[in-house]
Structures are given as C-alpha cells and as structure tokens.
Design a protein that fits this description.
The structure is a single chain. The protein folds into two domains: about 110 residues, Rossmann fold; about 100 residues, Winged helix-like DNA-binding domain superfamily/Winged helix DNA-binding domain (Arc Repressor Mutant, subunit A). β4, α4 and β5 form a beta-alpha-beta unit. It has eight helices and twelve strands. By secondary structure, the protein is an alpha/beta fold. It is elongated.
Length: about 210
C-alpha cells in the first residue's frame, strides 16, 4: 500500500499544490495547517511541515521533513533537527527534490522486512525470491512474484483492485486496465500446476482479491 503523508502547510496555495501533486505521485495525502490534529486523525507515515516553529509546540512522533522559511539559517536547521525533524529543505524548493527526500526518509524509517513470508502452504524467501508451494518450487515472472508477495503478507485480507494496481504497478486509481486480472490468471495457473487441489488467489467479484478463499 502507498505511504500516507500529512502536509501541514500554513500557506493555502502551497498546501493545495503539494496535496494535488503528491497525490498524483501515488501517496495518500491529508493536508491542513495543524500538524498535531492531522497526525492524530490519520496516523501517517511521514509529515511535511511547513512551519518550523510548530516543532516547539508539537514533538513529532512520525518522520518529519521541515520546509524552512526563506530567511532561515544554519541555527534554525540545527534547532529543528534537535527537536526531532528528520530532514530540512530550504524555501524556495524544487518539487522533485522534495519528492526524493520524502522517499529517502520513508526508506530510512521503514521497518526491516522479514526474510520469509509464509502463508499456509506458500513460502516466499525475499532474499532469494524463491517461491515454494507445499515445498515445491514455483517459477514466477517479476510482477506475478510481487503480486503474490503482496497477497501473502495478509493472506485473509481482501485487497481492492485499486490497492493492488497501486502497490504492485504504481498505477493511480483513475487507470482502467486488465493488467491485474491477466496477472492473477497466470499466477493461478502456475500455482495450480504445482498443486491442482489448493484454491489460491480468490476473487470477490467487482471488489478485488485475497490469497485464501
């Protein structure tokens, strides 16, 4: 699933710009001017904070990037880092740099992934990308593998098609495509070749897929 961002930016025009464009990058975005309230409401993965002074009133509990004021200096940056922010970007900033800094902070703050994903008879070694079903090797193409990993992490959960298209293909929800359905069909066929008796990758018509029925 895509990362959730809070944009706590006091300037309405800047806030709208960032909300619109970051959503277009595939992030789930909640924007406003109150960082504490927004974080309590949404439990985000990262906060973009447009007011460094808010750090004095609110100690960040999630990764935070501060957009510094144009007149800010090295003392302001050091103070913000000591107060808990993870990165600082001077204004005026380049949007592309902000996106890459967001992705870098998210990578650094992500929990370590387990080396194995196991769901019933399915076993996936994330280091070697080896997939087995009842101990027998299943050879998958890249996107088939990524789709299976996503489903196997929460095997009883029903994933919507929009969620899977975003997490596996990075497609926004507005895209209409049969890509997911065709990959599911090929994934099922390969799993059934190894074990024709076990039903995997169940479809709920019009909604999405889960690994186990």
């Amino acid at each position: 699933m895509s990362a959730a961002l809070v944009i706590a930016e006091p300037e309405e025009a800047a806030r709208g710009y960032l909300e619109r464009h970051l959503a277009g990058e595939g992030f789930r975005v909640l924007a406003g001017d109150d960082p504490h309230g927004l974080v309590e409401q949404s439990r985000p993965d990262l906060v973009v904070l447009g007011d460094a002074g808010a750090l004095e009133r609110w100690q960040p509990s999630v990764p935070t990037i501060v957009l510094g004021a144009p007149e800010a200096d090295a003392v302001d940056r050091v103070r913000a880092l000591r107060q808990g922010c993870d990165d600082w970007l001077d204004r005026p900033f380049h949007y592309e740099e902000l996106v890459e800094r967001i992705r870098a902070v998210l990578r650094r703050s992500a929990p370590d992934e387990p080396e194995l994903v196991e769901a019933g008879p399915v076993r996936i070694d994330l280091r070697t990308r080896r997939v087995t079903l009842h101990g027998r090797r299943v050879v998958l193409a890249q996107k088939e593998y990524e789709l299976l990993v996503e489903l196997a992490r929460e095997p009883d959960r029903l994933f919507t098609k929009e969620e899977l298209l975003l997490s596996v293909w990075d497609y926004p929800s507005s895209v209409r495509t049969r890509t997911l359905d065709s990959h599911v069909s090929r994934l099922r066929r390969k799993l059934r070749t190894v074990d024709p008796e076990t039903t995997l990758v169940a479809n709920q018509w019009g909604v999405g897929y889960r690994l186990f029925d």
